[in-house]
Amino acid sequence: MATYKAPLDDMRFVLNDVFEADKLWASMPATAEVTRDLADAILEEAGKMVEGVLLPLNRQGDEQGCTWNDGVVTTPEGFKDAYNTYREMGWTALSGNPAFGGQGMPKSLAVLFEEMIHATNTSFALYPLLSNGATLCLDAHATQEMKETYLPKMYSGEWAGTMCLTEPHCGTDLGIMRTKAVPNDDGSYNITGTKIFITGGEHDLTDNIIHLVLAKLPDAPAGSKGISLFLVPKFLLDDNQNPGERNGVQCGSIEHKMGIKGSATCVMNFDDARGWMVGEPNQGLAAMFTMMNYERISIGLQGVGLGDVSYQSAVEYAKDRLQGRAASGVQNASGPADPIIHHGDVRRMLLTMRALNEGARALAAYVGLQLDTAKFSEDAAARSAAEDRVALLTPVAKAFFSDRGLETCIIGQQVFGGHGYVREWGMEQFVRDARIAQIYEGTNGIQALDLAGRKVARNGGKSVQAFLADARGWVDANEGNAGIADVLPALRDALQLLDDLTADLLNNAGSDADAISASACEYLDVFGYVIYAWLWARMMATASDCTDYPHRDAKLLTGRFYFQRLLPKAHALAAQMRAGSEVMMAMDEAAF
Amino acid sequence: MATYKAPLDDMRFVLNDVFEADKLWASMPATAEVTRDLADAILEEAGKMVEGVLLPLNRQGDEQGCTWNDGVVTTPEGFKDAYNTYREMGWTALSGNPAFGGQGMPKSLAVLFEEMIHATNTSFALYPLLSNGATLCLDAHATQEMKETYLPKMYSGEWAGTMCLTEPHCGTDLGIMRTKAVPNDDGSYNITGTKIFITGGEHDLTDNIIHLVLAKLPDAPAGSKGISLFLVPKFLLDDNQNPGERNGVQCGSIEHKMGIKGSATCVMNFDDARGWMVGEPNQGLAAMFTMMNYERISIGLQGVGLGDVSYQSAVEYAKDRLQGRAASGVQNASGPADPIIHHGDVRRMLLTMRALNEGARALAAYVGLQLDTAKFSEDAAARSAAEDRVALLTPVAKAFFSDRGLETCIIGQQVFGGHGYVREWGMEQFVRDARIAQIYEGTNGIQALDLAGRKVARNGGKSVQAFLADARGWVDANEGNAGIADVLPALRDALQLLDDLTADLLNNAGSDADAISASACEYLDVFGYVIYAWLWARMMATASDCTDYPHRDAKLLTGRFYFQRLLPKAHALAAQMRAGSEVMMAMDEAAF
């Protein structure tokens, strides 16, 4: 059965000890009220909520799934009550703009909360997370009147939000979308078209659903430069700003999926639905993408959260399950066999999971702090540097978190042996739920192209060099730290490897049109392993200094495990990447 | 939607051109009648059958699953008719002993058939495959009278068979099992106990089910040396050897699983069920394990077959799906976008799948030929060498096939983007179905321990050395082959790496009790990548010589891709393995 306690100690260690987040928060007016005590208290309350409200609904949400009946979507039993509790406790408002009723908590805190909700009930988590994305977009691009009308109700959770991008014939390539927006005389538009894979497109949790829809104006330029963004409420607002007349948008069906079955994934049919433009004409894609960095981190965290609940459950099982005797001698003489946690192969699995989860948590907090700096800092140079770092690391975090998340959930399932394959134990649900995070919010292949193409090749590797300078500066400053002396050489090598591969990428991109697409995936993975190495070294350095930290030994051992057992993968990936594009592009299409 | 054509060309290339299987068959009396024409005809008929009978039932079998009602298990709609067709066509008898009505086809041919049935309907395939396992065991250990009574009906498919090993508290560690066998005066035994995870323990496909059950005699020694094997029919036979009185064995429930939902995974309750001992008292585990090499290859092939149907489906989708423009220039000027098969990242995915599938097919045929030699050769030295090779490679094939099979199915799902996550497209079922092959028939962790411990350390690496001598001999003999000159150095390096790691393993095993368990998994993976490299070089050498082979270029390019993009992983695994056991064993149990 699933075991989960919010990993508060490790979260506080990362936030408070490794990154001293409170110092950054205190330095910026928008976050000055967020003290260490407040952050700790929020995490503690969040832990109680997810353990008590979300986790108990997770299995049954998977078994029941959502149901569709003539356009009406019903969420699994208990979801509506849990949602009401969740929003009444204020969690829907956590990181919203205080000017419109949000609580203004920084992303560096929100990432830890998001990890928890994904760990305990990913299907449930997606409803408020998609609304978050919609509010971020409105807050950045809507008119003051729109914000006043919609944001307070969305922060309170009375209304939900969606993001409607994909169509049956286009997902990655939105430039070829067909949904049309025809202007009306009153400044509104009539939206017509079909959107698919719309998370929370229809459900029974809220009184209204505010769709953010990408569509094309009649005279729009071709391709992605001709896409505009529209706000389309499920219920049009009456004169008192309450949900009134039903708008021309209907849920045509819901998808039957591998996992996240409690999350309604909807086909949405817009038939002359009334909408209002958000932002400028033909600038819709850019507007939608302003919150993508936030959302992509949140989706990456699905992999981290599920990886952690899988780890915790696997540890519990491995301590309980008796099978065979430890190679080094009997551990449980009074029992018929030893707990399997004493077998090397089981430890390899558990430590792999743990090293990946804790590395991911550190990276999420790091990127969160960069997002906070980019948004709230009063220092323009700091903002700009942070924006650059966020742009560079967001695709890494989204793809590496979700790829390693699936890997971690598969390992956790393996620890359970045959029981891992049986639904009632819950381990296989984590695998199924985690799988989608590699696909949606931009497939991981697209994340890799974004990294290698837009974030590296197009700026001549400047962002990577800035990152490497910071990491190398940290290494230099910690050269004398005896607690990490054994891993620093490997970290230096890893940073050099990333440097070399970046140079290769830039070189090859000039002469070979396929160079980026043929090596982007490996490049992203190398980046992931290298940045985890740096963050692991930072965690080890901090733990080494915190002699009273109760998990000090575990942190140091897990870090060593990371360097010995996981970082070497970066070198194989480098060899793969160096093979270039020639062979893979040479195969004739018909020969596949 | 799933696309599958039996890969007859590649199967014939491997069997006829690479391995010249017909020469081996002709050299042994038991297989002398198996000509190349006969083998080709069997594969062709098999292809028609799996495409026409099994594939159409695969999706609905997953959606409906099996149902249990008061001990009666009903298979999905269409399974019973398909089973009747299957057995009437003689497929249940394919590799059975001709002395009792089997067709006596060699395993080297059967592996290709098994790949096909797994590809098209793994859930269905498991029913005849488990019966196969039971007949292999009976053929090796039962009395003549038992064989005459049971084998003809099992080969004809009128009766099915099971293997009952696992109990709720023990799977890997069968020594602690509790099922009891109490002798009766008439030479029979009364069997009492509960077995779980019994594939095909109860179903509606056959008139009788013959359970092979491991249990302990009242005076049995403790542990795995006190286990005996019993034949327990669902219906006791009447005087005419027809199913008569119901025996004391009932299906208590079926498992609700992640996948293989059309396969009934049963809890079997034996309550003074009458059984008859097979083989000698307390020798049951050894008897059951005589057919393990055959069965483990068959289960590994689940990964290969599913990997291939996933590949074929992904290729079809990648040729059809239009999204974005190729980096090297427009490929489909008249359409709104290019087929995604022109993107480097999609080719990376497809070629990875293909290189793993074809490498696996070659290894399956290679091990099949060794199994045939071990069973049928009249040359004692050849038999002994083949037995040794089979013992060494079976754990590699089972684990590496199924691990890479899951990986391949996940990649194929990724090619479909969001549609890969939706059930109706079928790609996610392949992932769910493939997952179990890493767990059952001995988890892949157990396969790795079997390899590193029993097959390598316990014989001082002699079996590995014999393998390396053969592979190096082949490399020496092919030194001048211009068609593979570019990959031979990497193959030599790979063989040396395996040699070095084997020496490390033997060294460390002497001084560190945990050395094997802490590195077995990586060692097995290295072995897999290295032996695929050898087999890929062999396929490339053969293709290079077959100038009229229509898939010659594709074979050579895919081989190069394997060496460039997949073999490098072996070197990272080596670094991981060399880290040893110290860090992973140092963590206190409570600290996890």
Give a short summary of the structure.
2 copies of one chain form a homodimer. By secondary structure, chain A is an alpha+beta fold. Chain A has helices at 8-18, 21-27, 36-54, 58-64, 79-88, 107-141, 144-155, 284-289, 292-320, 344-376, 380-415, 427-435, 444-456, 462-477, 488-511, 515-545, 552-566, 569-578, 582-586; strands at residues 67-69, 72-74, 159-164, 180-183, 189-199, 208-215, 228-233, 235-237, 243-246, 249-254, 265-278.
- Low-pLDDT regions of chain A: none
- Estimate the strand proportion of chain A: 5-15%
Overall geometry of chain A: globular
Number of helices of chain A: 19
Q: Which two chains share the most extensive interface?
A: A-B, 99 and 99 residues
Number of strands of chain A: 11
The CATH topology assignment of the domain at 8-150 in chain A is: Butyryl-Coa Dehydrogenase, subunit A, domain 1
Order of helices and strands of chain A: HHHHEEHHHEEEEEEEEEHHHHHHHHHHHH
- Assign the CATH superfamily of the domain at 8-150 in chain A: Acyl-CoA dehydrogenase/oxidase, N-terminal domain
Structure explained in plain terms:
- Two copies of one chain form a homodimer.
- Chain A is an alpha+beta fold and 592 residues long.
- Among the domains of chain A are: 8-150, Orthogonal Bundle (Butyryl-Coa Dehydrogenase, subunit A, domain 1); 160-283, Butyryl-CoA Dehydrogenase, subunit A, domain 2; 447-587.
- Chain A has helices at residues 8-18, 21-27, 36-54, 58-64, 79-88, 107-141, 144-155, 284-289, 292-320, 344-376, 380-415, 427-435, 444-456, 462-477, 488-511, 515-545, 552-566, 569-578, 582-586, and strands spanning 67-69, 72-74, 159-164, 180-183, 189-199, 208-215, 228-233, 235-237, 243-246, 249-254, 265-278.
- In chain A, strands 3, 4, 5, 6, 7, 10 and 11 form a seven-stranded mixed β-sheet that branches.
- The model of chain A has no long low-confidence stretch (mean pLDDT 97).
- Chains A and B meet through helix 9, helix 10, helix 11, helix 12 and helix 13 of A and helix 9, helix 10, helix 11, helix 12 and helix 13 of B.
